[in-house]
Design a protein that fits this description.
Order of helices and strands: EEHEEEEEEHHHHHHHHH
Organism: Chitinophaga horti
Number of strands: 8
Keywords: DNA-binding, Transcription, Transcription regulation
Number of helices: 10
CATH architecture of the largest domain: Sandwich
Largest sheet: 8 strands, mixed
Protein name: AraC family transcriptional regulator
Pfam families: AraC_binding, HTH_18
Strand content: 15-25%
CATH class of the largest domain: Mainly Beta
Radius of gyration: 20 Å
Length: 294
């Protein structure tokens, strides 16, 4: 069955200004908006990591259908595959960076290094950070350096990588108090592994026991871990991921509800409708009409 997807942009399709490099883009927010706002206000996905620091402006932005008010000093991070849109008002200032996972492959021996940062978890609420003014000043200085070095990526690629990692480490340090302080590292590693498996298998595996087997733990242990660290059961995390993808696909007007149900491995379209309404309070058609109207 042919399916139309939500628009997916890579860095090339956004007109990378850094000649000879398809893995990195940095720009001042007003300049970026002048080039791209006309087609990026509607929900779309990125095939790359995406981060924005707001230093001035107002309006809202959405990440996976959670809406956030723009605030001075707000920094948001997005992992590949998340859906977002903008609704800005007035003058906007700040910085934007897009980069692919490939940017760091020749530089970091530790695979999955970015997964250590909670703001790249792919959970929208964990990716939006309000930073103290002194941290914003530090990161603004780093962004100005990035703009200079990115003008010649062939010569300064490693400097760009170092500066970008510095941004992540500075933000991570500023957010230390909001993270799971005192939680044993092995528990956090297990939770990240569970979330990663859900992202890979949510279309075909729907039971906590199936994931517990892949993680070599008991279902009771996995469930207790999720409730302890997140306040949700393992089954709720699986269900939430299915619902999130359903919302992402329904945001695309060219994909029928039947095609969405088929894509998510619901062989019975009526069961998908009942499942979606039970947990969202809306039918798939009602949700779609609301999103497109908004």
């Amino acid at each position: 069955m042919a399916k139309e997807k939500i628009p997916v942009y890579d860095i090339c399709s956004l007109g990378n200004q850094h000649e000879g490099n398809d893995d990195f883009l940095v720009d001042r927010l007003p300049d970026y908006l002048d080039k791209h706002l006309g087609h990026l206000h509607f929900p779309h996905r990125h095939a790359f990591y995406h981060l924005v620091l707001f230093t001035e402006g107002r309006g809202t932005h959405t990440i996976d259908f959670s809406q956030f008010d723009v605030q001075e000093g707000q920094f948001y991070f997005m992992a590949p595959g998340q859906v977002h849109g903008w609704n800005f008002a007035g003058n906007m200032n700040g910085y934007i960076v897009n980069f692919t996972e490939a940017l760091f492959k020749p530089f970091l021996q530790q695979t999955g290094y970015l997964e250590r940062f909670s703001f790249f978890s792919g959970i929208s609420e964990e990716g939006v950070c309000q930073l103290p003014q002194e941290v914003v000043k530090t990161i603004t200085h780093i962004f100005e350096q990035l703009l200079q070095y990115a003008a010649d990526m062939r010569r300064h690629a490693d400097m760009v990588r170092v500066l970008l990692l510095q941004v992540f480490l500075v933000v991570d340090d500023a957010l230390a108090d909001r993270q799971h302080a005192g939680v044993p590292q092995q528990k956090l590693v297990l939770l990240r592994g569970f979330r990663k498996l859900i992202d890979t298998h949510y279309r075909s595996l729907r039971l906590p026991k199936e994931y517990a087997d892949l993680l070599y733990v008991t279902p009771n242990h996995l469930n207790a871990l999720c409730q302890d660290l997140i306040g949700k059961t393992a089954g709720e995390l699986i269900r939430d991921r299915v619902l999130l993808e359903a919302r992402r696909l329904l945001a695309n007007a060219r994909m029928s509800v039947t095609e969405v149900a088929y894509d998510l491995n619901f062989q019975d379209n009526s069961y998908f409708n009942r499942f979606f309404k039970k947990y969202t309070g809306q039918t798939p058609d009602e949700f779609r009409k609301h999103i497109l109207k908004a």
